Amino acid sequence: MIGERTGLFGKGVVRPSIPAEPKGKRGYILSLVVIMLLSVLALYANDAATQKQRAHTFLQKQFYTEKTVFIIDDMAQDVRSVLSLDYPADSTQLIFNENLVVNKSQFLANYSDFISNFSQLENANVSFAYSDPLGILLSNGLVYTSNFTNQQIDLYNSIGGAAAITAYYMSINSSQASSAYSLPTFMANGTLVFLNFTDLAKPSKSFTASGFVDPAVPNQFDIKYSGNNHVYVNIGLVDGRQNSYQMQQVGVTALAGHSLIANLTTRDGLYAAYNLPLNITMPGVNFIDRLPTR
Prior knowledge:
By secondary structure, this protein is α+β, with helices and mostly antiparallel strands. 26% of the residues lie in helices and 42% in strands.
């Protein structure tokens, strides 16, 4: 029968034979597969290395960003020990508190040296500039300055026009005995002023006084000391600026503490910073701005 034959082990069907692939072609395909596999592995390894580097860079930047924020907060807290500003979010009040005993120029000079040593320990570059007066700049245009050399404090609107303030509440502590005082002329309306003067050396000379003053004219509290020395509290027209505030010590450095609360006409989302230009440089992070008050 056609297609049948007797084999070595018996009768069977003879199937068409498939030609074997040349050995060279099979080697080429295998080599190509190996190359493709190695290429995929190389791409994967390179991508993994890139992702790892990105993750490392991100974590490093996050670490130094958090470290920068910590340094800023720490510095602000230190400067707040001599001059601070609080402005509660649910209030229209600005609250300035100041230590008048500390020589701010010397304090900032010593603090600059401390920051320089701190920078070396932290492997960072931290520096700031300072000058007298030490001031606070607010985003609504108000400026508070404390001049240690002249023993004078000012609060005014730096962008023109009267300061948008409805009331001033002052609290002043004196470490030296005063002798007498005089008050401004109060009115039926205007800017409300309230002065609480505490004479720590002679409590009987302590007093409080309050009333409304015309914000467009000069108004003065005069606290007198021996030897024709004075502490002046001026509210209203001060140095050509309406509804401003000024405290001066003339011939005497009697005041130990000073607190000023200013009631704003509107509630604003304020930002405030000291007039202390600050520069912090770390890997991947560079902060250049004034030191925030908080």
